[in-house]
Amino acid sequence: SLGLVGSEMCIRDRIKADPRFLDWATATRRGAILWWKPAHCCTFVGWVNRDGRQYAAILDNNYPGRFELTPPEQFVRLWAGYGGFALTVLDDPASSLPYRSYEVIQ
To answer: Quick one: average pLDDT of 5-28?
Structure first.
């Protein structure tokens, strides 16, 4: 569904675990929040490649500075099991690209 919050911010959500929504959020540098783990919302940062393999990068506020990397098939299965909900902002500005949290950015 598409809705207007306040006067400017549009939001979009999907009820089912549809990775195409997260593909779009990643391609447009938005990221998303999603139900991840029982009764907990986390931030989907994007799809990242590590050692030649693709992973979903999840940032949990209980473990700041550390990405949880999950292979795509496992991620979609678990996400669907937690309800498959995701939400992102449609308007700019877009979030920054994911980076390795242990790297120093200068």
So the answer is: 66
